[in-house]
Amino acid sequence: MNKNQKRYLLVIPAVVLFGLFVLMLPPVRERVFWRVDLLRTQISAFLFPQEEARFVPQEQVDAIVQATMQAYLATPVAPSATPTPEVAAASPTPAPTLPPSVTLSGVRYEDQHGMWNYCAPATLSMALSYWGWQGTRMDTGKAIKPFDEDLNVMPYEMVDYVNEQTEYAALARSGGTLELARRLVAGGFPVLAEKGPIIHEVSTGQDTWMGHYTLLTGYDDASQEFISQDSYYSADYPVPYASLEEEWRSFNYVFVVVYPHERETELLSLLGEYGDEMASEQIALQKADEEIAGRSGIEQFFAYYNRGTSLVDLQDYSGAAAAYDQAFLLLSAMDTEQVPKKVMRIVWYQTGPYFAYFYTGRYQDVIDLAGTVMDMATRGPFLEESFYWRARAKVALGDTQGAIDDLNQSLVYHPGFPPSVQLLQDLGVPS
Question: Which residues of 13-41 are buried (b: 16+ CB within 10 A; e: fewer)?
Answer without folding.
Answer: eeeeeeeeeeeeeeeeeeebeeeeeebbe
